Amino acid sequence: MNSPGKLAGPLAVLALMAFAPGAAIAQEPSGSPNDTTTLEGGQLPPPPPEFGGRISEQALQSTPWWPPRVVPPEKAPNILLIITDDAGFGVPSTFGGVIPTETMDQLAAEGLRYTAIHSTALCSPTRAALITGRNHHSAGFGVISEQSTGYPGYNSIIAEDKATIGRILRDNGYNTAWFGKDHNTPAFQASQAGPFDQWPTGMGFDYFYGFVGGDANQWQPNLFRNTTQIYPFKGQPEWNLVTGMADDAIDWITRMHQINPEQPFFVKYAPGATHAPHHPTKEWLAKIEAMNLFDDGYNALRQEIFENQKKLGLIPETAQLAPWPEDKIRSWDKLSAEEKKLFIRQVEVFAAYAAYSDHEIGRVIGAIEELGELDDTLIIYINGDNGTSAEGGPLGTPNEVAFFNGVNMMPAKQQMHWYDVWGTEETYNHMSAGWSWAFDTPFDWFKQNASRLGGVRQNMVVSWPKGITDKGGLREQFMHVIDVVPTILEVTGIPAPKAVDGIEQAPIEGTSFAYTFDAANADAPSQHRTQYFEMMGQWALYHDGWLLSTKVNRAPWEAFGAANPDPLNNQILQLYDLTTDYTQSNDIADQHPEKVKELKALFIEEAKKYNVFPMDASVAARIIAPRPNITAGRSEFVYTRPMTGLPQGDSPLLLNTSYTITAEIDVPKGGAEGMILTSGGRFAGYGLYLLDSKPVFVWNMLDLERIKWAGTEALAPGKHVIEFDFKYDGLGVGTLAYNSMSGLGGGGTGTLKVDGKEVQTRKMDKTIGMILQWDESFDIGSDTLTGINDEDYTPPFALTAKLEKLTVKIDRPELSDADKAKLKQAMLKASD
Questions:
Q1: What value, to the nearest 5°, has the Cα angle with vertex 743 and ends 739 and 745?
Q2: Where is the Sulfatase N-terminal domain (predicted)?
């Protein structure tokens, strides 16, 4: 980096006056085009400097002056921040697991292993905390955006007073990029209409390559470069996002280095692995199959991981395993031969996905090494944003979308239909929760369970050859993902800004763990002493080794019942001394009632401070609750030309309602085919299209059944009006106000008409009540990504007729006073 030149005389005085006090410029600019400077804090961006040269009427009598280019402090390293998805403590080989994670192993050998960094128990809340350094409710992410509600702690909006680490580093001279999962853009701001301030490029990341939402089909993802949807997989049947993302990251890092080798980079690297769907390549699946890692079942796997962790010195010899949850998940020896065969396939695909992702991370690190930058790159590799997911239920599922619609106990015999294609583009697969319990060893429970260490205890490795000399060291201090931002700021020498874009910044709530990089502090007490946890009504409070937690009252797959009406007080409280009880196994609440009282009071204090109230224990009900998307309050939608890529959260919702779709088209000579309107995809959705000039309407019911209305006569050339009218029999989303799911997914009658004449009428006994396939879009005139009916067409299936007008009218049911009273009584009875 170029140092600013020193000035003398009157010009020096001008230069010193060039930046307003709020800019806090550290060096004096000389006016040379080569000048650089660092910032000392204050406001971002710094105010524009006053001109420091001299202006006369003629250039020959004037003195030019250039504002200095802002650069990071001289010794600021590159930063690669990696966070994987849905992976518990016992997943990677680095921490006793059986799944080979060679990249993490190598980084651990060269750096440090951390065994006590904690998450929030859910993905986007953890990620909001990670990039802001604030607790997830402080950052507006008490839950995922798809469950957001109109309270500051739950609206899924990262407020402007909480600038991300990307924004801070970018304004201080870093190149910044975000690869992979972005689950921090509100679902109601994810369309082409924006706004884009909550997208990565609006939060301080100059470049984004990834998907928006909780998960993605890795074979055909809903993929963006910055804010533009892209389709690099088209025409490449073996293409997979895990590799595609690594390729793009390598290209970007290399390109930035070639342009300016002296400018450091900050990369957030967030692969979709191992969130469902589990989509590894066939080569990686073959590698894992050949290892025969899981033939003895999940009970034996749990014990094996536990013993490995003791041998590695990761957990105390005195650590205990909690009893197997037989009331929730049957032991391996009680399964049928068919179930065992299916479950082994499920977990081998999961393991292949994890190993494959770790390998591709290694390719990115290898590229950094080839550039000669590895020694001066701080790598933080966090295993999981929460514990392993059990959202596949005890039996697993070939279609995770089914889980989110309440179908989570599909028998093994039925699932065997997908056995040979498990993990391919034909499945949106998840594994049995028995494996998830084992992968959270030595702890128990899962993702979503914020009161158990299995839901919130992660591990990570940190490597920085120039900054860490205690190679292979172990660190056991209590930490939380909110500690990452202050650590990065301390290491780079960049202070947290007092104001960004004129907005005063809220304090960063995390605590730097940079002190642990020093071997002398290997056993130093943790500097993070107190931390609350809360997720969907389950909560805990850590303080100086004590853990107060609520007894688990809901497994993750139990999302559709009545919620606890008072999650703060209507709880069984448990108390653990983690200094002697490593695995949260021995409840001593009865022995220390005063400590229970003290810690509950402290939890309430923390909850008030960080926007946890009002607490809400509902799960599925919040998915379909009204929120301020661009369709809110509208009942009629009109389109006059093809359009694709409108995400589910910003498109007309045809669930739990009556509706009419009317398409005015002009069929050319020779007939027509193609998609008129579709939403969703292979795993849940609907579509109105022409097949051999005949109108067809299809509901894809979670890839389990396809209900079809079809015309028998081809449309003659010329203008036609095709209409699909559906009369819904259920009570609709109004039931959610009373915390009841009884009015959702009801039946109804659909009628297909052509030019006003009835073609076919069919009754549906039930409909999809919660959500369509979320990584697919609302498309007009063609079908992006996967199709809703593979038997009839292959995307994009462009419409060859002329679309003149498409109208969607929605008639949502309203509850009568009698219905409201009845539902309120049902809710009160369910909560008793």
A1: 120
A2: 77-494
Q: Whole-angstrom Cα distance, residue 716 to residue 677?
A: 20
Q: DSSP characters for 630-643?
A: TTTT--EEEE-S-E
Q: Which residues, at least 6 apart from 188, have a Cβ–Cβ distance to it below 8 Å?
A: 145, 148, 627, 628, 629, 630, 649, 650
Q: Give the pLDDT confidence of 604-617 residue by residue, as tens digits.
A: 999 999 999 999 99
- Please, is 830 exposed, middle or buried when counting C-beta atoms within 10 Å of its C-beta (0-12, 13-18, 19+)? middle
Sign of the C-alpha dihedral, residues 357, 361, 367, 370? negative
Mean pLDDT throughout 697-709? 97
Q: Are 204 and 168 in contact (CB under 8 A)?
A: yes
Burial (CB count within 10 angstroms: exposed 0-12, middle 13-18, buried 19+), residue 150: exposed
Nearest alpha carbon to residue 746 among 639, 659, 620, 658: 658
CATH architecture of 540-623: 2-Layer Sandwich (3.30)
How many whole angstroms separate alpha carbon 141 and alpha carbon 64?
49
Domains 78-539 and 636-818 share a fold: no
Q: Which residues pair with 211 in a beta bridge?
A: 181, 223
Cβ-based neighbours of 628, under 8 Å, separated by 6 or more? 150, 188
Residue 84 burial by CB count (10 A; 0-12/13-18/19+): exposed, middle or buried? buried
Which residues have a Cβ under 8 Å from the Cβ of 237 and sit 6 or more positions away? none
Asked if residue 129 has pLDDT above 50, the reply is yes
Average pLDDT in the chain: 93
Q: Which of 706, 784, 790 has the alpha carbon at shortest distance from 224?
A: 784
Query: What's the whole-number mean pLDDT along residues 815-820?
Result: 69
Distances (CA, A) of 526 to 315, 476, 488: 17, 8, 17
Q: Which of 684, 695, 705, 724 is nearest to 808 (CA)?
A: 724
The Cα–Cα gap between 666 and 676 comes to 12
pLDDT at 735 over 50: yes
If DSSP states are collapsed to H, E and C, what string results for 486-541? HHHHHHHCCCCCCEECCEECCCCCCCCCHHHHCHHHCCCCCCCCEEEEEECCEEEE
The rounded Cα 803 to chain-centroid distance in angstroms is: 36
334: closest CA among 306, 298, 302? 298
- Return d(Cα 655, Cα 649) in angstroms, integer: 13
Fold of 636-818: Jelly Rolls (2.60.120)
Per-domain boundaries in the chain: 1-71, 78-539, 540-623, 636-818
Structure tokens at 390: 């059990």
**Cα–Cα distance for residue pair 53/64, rounded to 1 Å:** 5
Terminus-to-terminus CA distance in the chain, angstroms?
Answer: 68
Report yes or no on whether pTM surpasses 0.90.
yes
C-alpha 639, offset from chain centre: 31
What does CATH list as the number for 78-539?
A: 3.40.720.10
Spatial distance between the Cα atoms of 703 and 428, rounded to a whole number of angstroms: 10
Q: What share of the chain is helix, strand, coil (3-state, %, to 5)?
A: 25, 25, 50
Confidence of residue 253 (pLDDT cuts 50, 70, 90): very high
SS (H, E, C) 277-329: CCCCCHHHHHHHHCCCCCCCCHHHHHHHHHHHHHHCCCCCCCCCCCCCCCCCC
769, 741 in Cβ contact below 8 A?
A: yes
Tell the residue number behind the tokens 């994987």, with chain if given: 84
Residue predicted with more confidence, 768 or 744 = 768
Structure tokens at 245: 């993302």
Q: Are 122 and 144 in contact (CB under 8 A)?
A: yes
Percent of the chain with pLDDT over 90: 86
